[in-house]
Structure formats: C-alpha cells, structure tokens
Amino acid sequence: MTEDFLLNTKSSFDKIAEKYDERDNANEILQWMRGIVHNVYIQNFYESENILELNCGTGEDALFFASQGMKVFATDLSPEMVKIAQNKAINAGFDDVIETKALSFNEINLVDRKDFNGIVSNFGGLNCINDFNNLEKDLAEKLIPGGKFIAVVMNKFCPWEIFYYTLRLDFKNAFRRFTKKGIEANLSGENVITFYYFPKEFGKRFSNQFEVEKIYSLGVFTPPPYLIGIYRRFKPIVKIFMTIDKAIKNIFPFNRIGDHFIIVMRKIS
C-alpha cells in the first residue's frame, strides 16, 4: 500500500467515524449479516481466548467477543474509529479485556504478542488492499499453532448486484466487481479503492501460512446492505430470502457466491 493510499483511507474513515454506528445500526440487512458472522465466531473461538481484530471500526465485534468472555486486541487504521471503540469498551465495563490501538494492516508487526488464538477481519476491511504477502506472515507470527484467521470479504460474484444493475441497463456497474484494478470510490471527499475476491482466490493469497477450513456465503438471495430500500419495501419476501440464505450458507456452490463470504482458515503448524 502506498503512503498516499493509506492517508486517503485513514482520512475518509476518520471523517465518517462519528456517524458510523448511526448508519450501520439502522441497516437491518447489515445487522442480520453481523449476527451470522458472530455465530461463526462462537463456533471457532471460546471463553478466555485471545483475539486480534483487524479493522475493528467502532468496536462492535470487540464488544461481542468481550461479552463471550474473550480478550481482544482491537486495531484499526482510523484513530477516530479506535477512539470510539475504546470509549465503548470503557462504558460497557470491558476496558480490562479490550485493548485498542490505531494500526494499519502494514503495522500489525508492531503488535508485540504471539499468543492469539484467533484473528478476525469483518465486513470487507481486507478489500481495501490487494497485496497480502507481508500481512500473511505477520498474522501467522501472531497466532499460536493451529490458531484461526476468519475474514469477512466482499465477493467478486454478487448475483444481486448483477441482477439489480442489469435491470437498470447499467452494465458497467453490473459487472464492476470483476475489474482487476479495483473500484475507486469517493468516501467523505477522499478516493478509496476497493478490490473484490472470489473465495478460492482469497484463500490462495494466504496459502503459504494457512489452510482453508470452511467458507460461508453472506447474501446470495438477500440484497446487499446498500439496497436496504428493497428490504424495507418487500420485507416479508426478503425475510424468506434471509431464511434460505442461512440454510445454504455453507453448501457448495452457494457458499462461493454472494455479497460477502466468510472464510475460516487455520494456521499451518
């Protein structure tokens, strides 16, 4: 990642930090997705274990881990996001089990610990980069033997997005996720690039240090969070889609497509 890229990304997330929770908490699809992710977390991590969180945002997942009796070292590129996460931990009485620090993906090597049972990255944080060589090594060094890395990543193949934009005859956006150069988007006045990955492609990026255990889909039939208007207009139907998605989330080939995927990887001992 170039210095300019890091500065732009940091600046953009600093600017939206204050209203980040207000937006996310009002999005029913996003909250449904978070619930599925949390369920995967508790199937893989247990009470008293140590978790390293990447791109922690405002600390929602850190609070969840703490509520399950785990200890969390939460990191994020944005100091403003980290500040909010830290205040949440204090207000919830979890400041003794949640430690926060503003660190980019390039700075994970600065975490002076190698006792983590698990590492997590939720909701597309890792879609902000396309070079994982150093990160792969850094994560493996921080994990105990057999430790797990769970990432929630935006999928390259999102049926809903293709369907939605094709109906609008907007073919450029219908297939925008397939570009190798990534998509440049304006976030709070800064240009941020997003890269998309197939689950198999993403797993290969970490194959020197990790082996893929499981892959789950997030949003095959359910609209992406940015189409929340469809959910609110056709809520009973979308609720049925959500039920179907839960049932098929780990069934091939459905677990290879969707708005996001959850990939569970184990450190190769």
Please give a handful of descriptors for the protein shown.
269 residues, alpha/beta, Rossmann fold, two-stranded antiparallel sheet, 10 helices, 41% helix
Q: Walk across the major sheet and give the strand order.
A: 3-2-1-4-5-9-8
Structural class: alpha/beta
Beta-strand content = 15-25%
CATH class: Alpha Beta
Q: What would the CATH topology be?
A: Rossmann fold
Proportion in helices: 40-55%
Helices, strands, pairings?
Elements: H1 3-25, H2 28-44, E1 50-54, H3 60-67, E2 71-76, H4 79-91, E3 98-102, E4 116-121, H5 133-142, E5 143-154, H6 159-167, H7 171-174, E6 183-187, E7 190-194, H8 199-205, E8 210-218, H9 228-233, H10 235-248, E9 260-267
Parallel strand pairs: 1-2, 1-4, 2-3, 4-5
Antiparallel strand pairs: 5-9, 6-7, 8-9
Helix pairs in contact: 1-4
